[in-house]
Automatic annotation (TrEMBL):
Domain of life according to the entry: Bacteria
Transmembrane segments: 20-42
Keyword presence, Nucleotide-binding: no
PROSITE patterns: PROKAR_NTER_METHYL
Matching Gene3D superfamilies: Glycoprotein, Type 4 Pilin
The protein's name: Type II secretion system protein
Coiled-coil ranges per UniProt: none
Originating organism: Ideonella paludis
Keywords: Membrane, Methylation, Transmembrane, Transmembrane helix
Length: 161
């Protein structure tokens, strides 16, 4: 029987328990070192989703306001929708009786809100007649913001985006 340089025969191949533990320790250290990168990637993805959702809702709010200015929909005093749901459910078209105007297919959820929160309730609402530094709900929806108190990767709270 031929013996290799490590004291094992040529037919005995494999890892010893010590070698296996060393490999497991190295893999554990690599996984531990990669964790912050994964968390950063998740944060970046959620921030991109937030930006996309804010733009989608704000575009719909602007489209509603423009339609109200053009006399296509009956807008309130401010010309903004009474709720986020009105953007999805549609509003009667003033110039085409029996027709509805829709501004969103669905209300996107705030990615920083708890998953069990309905999409329309996940956003903070700002009415037209509220100041920018103290936004609050009112008779219409002029703007939306995230209710999260998390800090963005850019150093600005996501609620101020």
């Amino acid at each position: 029987m031929k013996v290799s340089g490590r004291g094992r025969s040529a037919t005995q191949r494999g890892l010893t328990l010590v070698e296996l533990l060393v490999v497991m320790a190295v893999l554990g250290i690599l996984a531990w070192a990669a964790t912050p990168m994964v968390e950063l990637s998740v944060q970046r993805q959620r921030e991109q989703e937030l930006k996309r959702a804010l733009w989608e809702i704000r575009d719909a709010l602007d489209a509603y306001h423009l339609a109200a200015q053009q006399g296509l929909v009956a807008g309130g005093a401010s010309g903004y929708p009474p709720s986020l749901e009105a953007l999805v459910q549609g509003v009667p078209d003033v110039k085409a009786p029996g027709q509805m105007r829709y501004f969103l297919r669905r209300i996107p959820s705030d990615p920083f809100a708890p998953p069990s929160t309905p999409a329309a309730l996940s956003w903070g609402l700002r009415a037209y007649d509220t100041p920018p530094d103290r936004p609050g709900p009112g008779a219409d929806v002029y703007d939306v913001y995230s209710r999260s108190n998390r800090m963005g990767l850019n150093g600005q709270p996501v609620s101020q985006w």
